[in-house]
Amino acid sequence: MAIPVLKASALTKRFGDFMAVNEVSFEIRPGEILGLLGPNGAGKTTTIQMLLGLVTPTAGSIHMFGLDLSTHREEILQQVNFSSTYISMPQALTVEENLCVVARLYGISDRARRVNDIIKKLEMEEFRSKTTRKLSSGQMTRLTLAKAFLTEPRILFLDEPTASLDPDIAEKIRVLLKEERRASGLSILYTSHNMREMEEMSDRIIFLQRGRIVAEGTAREIIDRFGKADLEEVFLKFAREQQQSS
Amino acid sequence: MKLHRITALLVRHLYLYRRSLPRIMEIFYWPFLDLVIWGFITLYLARYQSQVPGFVTFFLGALILWDMLFRSQQGITIAFLEELWARNLMNLFASPLKPSEFLTATMAMSVMKVTVVSIVMAGSALLFYSYNILIIGAWLMPFVLNLVITGWIIGVFTTSLIMRFGQEAEVLAWSMVFLFQPISCVFYPLEVLPTWLQMIAWANPAAHIFEGMRTVLSAGASPLGNLAWAVCLNGVFLVVVVAWFYRTVAYCKEHGLLVRVGE
Asked: Where among A98, A130, A152 does a domain terminate?
């Protein structure tokens, strides 16, 4: 079996009395798409923030490419990127300027070509010179995805990457993700509230509830284990349980 | 430290200034307006207070030097606020960018701002009041360097507070520096302060610079003592405040504040 590119061991985050993530352990293998599912407040975003070094874990460890994130932050984050519907980019800069800044930040050589390539790939030519504040939410999502792809990461964290995209662009993004995975062995941690998309995209899925892993496996295995018709029903079961207990 | 990451942040801010009139105004308009108002006040007072030697020289010199300190502090704090307003902090802190590179970039921004503001103010003073800041002589450069560093210290301190307490603390970006103005003895000598406040002012590097400026302009004497105090105090405070910035970043990561600071 391939050596995992990401290994989270007993990852725990406590904010005062609130346990946001509770001894979560998982691995991502090269070229694997791992789906992270769970109702709001289950700990998905906190987990991703810990993986990006934005939040320090209370306990546990994170290793990527065999390196410890707490001691090799710079080397690891050079090979990792993320996209989320909850982030923005400098509003007064154009799409192209924003991407150029990101390219510089990651020390990309041949910046102009790479920025051009990614703009073409994500069909952003028509708004490449628009200032970011004038973008629609779908265009903004494409920009944050372009930012994530631009640096050619080995691991990509995608927090609801297609949430505000129209079905056509969303489908193109999914195809692109699969292509990148096939071509470069890109590994992806993926969250979405679109269960059909999760089934289609994920090789394996982890279900979080109240900060703990409550189910893990392929979409089919999880559906069968809980005797449900589809992933959406499994999701609803966990969401309602969490709601009742809070 | 990697130069390309520092350059990336500088380029990002230069893009911003290139097409933002309010930001350009911040560099040209306010310093110019400051100078015009204070220039007229100085001329008026000089007419009736002629027994105070070098009145115009003191006031306009002090005003220009104070603005350098102020713009140096703003260069740091506003650069951070720009990231906060743009909700861009997550993008930066989830990249390989180190806190030291972030600080270096903001310090470089502040030097650029100070340079432009100094040229605008010195040029305007010469044009409208026939006042030449260069009369301070060779001491001008070490004075300016020390004031820029004092501005960095206040800027990094303020930035840490905003990072720690969130957007509601952003008013500190404009108000914090004025807390230091009375004890910087910008427009009056240290001796006019009450004794207890003199002791506090003595620990402020800027007070030594303004005292030094008056020493040069009034007596033409060497302000080496004042300069030595300013250099030592700046050195100590800069180390302390940078260490505190690092501690604040770590604290914000522990408490999840870094991802919520812009909310």
From this structure: A152
Query: Domain total for chain A?
Result: 2
The reply to whether A140 and A157 lie within a common domain is no
Q: Which domain holds residue A138?
A: 89-152
**Residue B166 · residue B85 · CB < 8 Å:** no
Say yes or no: A103 and A183 in one domain.
Answer: no
CB atoms A89 and B88 under 8 Å:
yes
Give me chain A's average pLDDT, please.
Answer: 92
A-to-B residue pairs, Cβ atoms closer than 8 angstroms: 90
* Whether residues A173 and A240 fall in one domain: yes
Q: What is the ipTM of this complex?
A: 0.91
pLDDT tens per residue across span A14-25: 999 999 999 999
**Closest-CA residue in chain A for B23?**
A92
Are residues A45 and A17 part of one domain?
Answer: yes
Q: Judge if A184 and A217 occupy the same domain.
A: yes
Are residue A58 and residue A174 in the same domain, yes or no?
yes
pLDDT of amino acid B263: 55
CB contact under 8 A, A87 and B91: yes
**Whether A53 and B7 lie within 8 Å, measured CB to CB:** no
Contact criterion met (CB < 8 Å) for A15 and B7: no
B87 and A78: CB-CB below 8 Å?
Answer: no
Q: Final residue of a domain: which of A137, A152, A167?
A: A152
Which segment of A120-124, B134-138, B156-160, B186-190 scores lowest on mean pLDDT? B134-138
Query: To the nearest whole angstrom, how far is the Cα of A156 from the nearest Cα of chain B?
Result: 12
| Cβ-based contacts of B8 with chain A (< 8 Å) | 101-102, 104-105
